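Re: weekly structure request thread

Next one in the queue (144 aa):
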Amino acid sequence: MKPRHKRMAAIALGVVALGVVASLVLVAFNRNIVFFFTPSQVAANEAPQGRTFRIGGLVAPGSVKRDGVDVNFVVTDTAKAIPVLYRGQLPDLFREGKGVVAQGELGADGVFRAREVLAKHDENYMPPEAAYAVERAQKTIQTK
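Done, posted below.
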């Protein structure tokens, strides 16, 4: 084989290897990406069924029901509300009427099954995603 052909084969092999590595990285990235949805978006069926995503808003007052390690509560953006089921210990700062972001999957029954619940840091803080969801929902209500 001539040196020119060897060089072309090496370049072709490098391009193929780079393509394989890039595709593996993109597949891994796609599997691990987690999108954020508001309760209004979930109620409008914009959220994926059977895929992990985050939902955020306020914990509806009077909605927290505890049964052993199972906790049921409702997340609202003041326009729509989504029931959430979480099994485990909630963060110490989890309170009714305060901001929350939950990560999990939406069941066919419309109940969001959370694997992780994130709560606010202090009395004035709300997760940015939740604050945006509430603000957007309130603007939607005011324009109707």
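DSSP finds three helices and seven strands in the chain. The mean pLDDT is 85.
Next request, please.
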